[in-house]
Amino acid sequence: MLTILDHPLIKHKLTLMRKKTASTKDFRQNLDEIAELMAYEVCRDLPLNEIPIETPVAPTTGYELSKEVIIVPILRAGVGLLDGIRELVPTAKVGFIGMYRDEETLEPHEYFAKFPSGMEDAIVMIVDPMLATGGSAVDAIEAVKKRGAKNIKLVNLVGAPEGVEAVQKAHPDVDIYLAALDEKLNENGYIVPGLGDAGDRIFGTK
Ligand code: PRP
Ligand code: URA
């Protein structure tokens, strides 16, 4: 399933991020705010348990999340979405997977992985601002499946049709959430119009 979260606030903030004149500070702040808005929608179908509680006035039935949430940012750029999602789901555990894309071949390479226990029963959210060829996402999903994850959501800010297709083909069971589906990839594997190199813009490395 592909869901495009085209909320007016997300569109407004994403436009500010896309501008090449956006400062690192503004880019990060808008990403943080969009992450919270996206998390609200991505969590819409989280399962609940009914629990008996007592208010100061009367006993009643309340609700609690019935499954643990594990957020897995793809390093580096995925870290930019982490705080915003954790604001809404503060009990979430966090795993990390480090991937970089070879600039020539566009092939992803894994250089780090650290996951919490309980992946089998959790809702695992893999987060990364960019879904370009889809290579990094396909491999990251493979990595969490190897650790037992069964209920997986992929949360990206901007996606290219090529990346969406690659993930849907390799992992048809994974739900994909985007703030925007852009037009295409250019000859260097960058999303058009996109927002440039997300990692560099978040961390000020170029
Ligand atoms: C970027 C981005 C994704 C990947 C997307 O990371 O954050 O992880 O590229 O491209 P793909 O869909 O073609 O695999 P990058 O490799 O630039 O590393 P960084 O996050 O450390 O900057
Ligand atoms: N990675 C990025 O950061 N931006 C793109 O447009 C493609 C891959």
Q: How much of the residues is beta strand, in percent?
A: 25-35%
List ligands, each type once.
1-O-pyrophosphono-5-O-phosphono-alpha-D-ribofuranose, uracil
In terms of structural class, how would the helical and strand content be classed?
A: alpha/beta
Oligomer type = single chain
Radius of gyration: 17 Å
Order of helices and strands: EHHEEEHEEEEHEHEEEH
Low-confidence stretches: none
Mean pLDDT: 97
Figure out the total of helices.
6
Please tell me what the overall shape is.
Answer: globular
User: Number of DSSP strands?
Assistant: 12
Largest pleated sheet: 8 strands, mixed
Distance between the termini: 35 Å
Helical content class: 25-40%
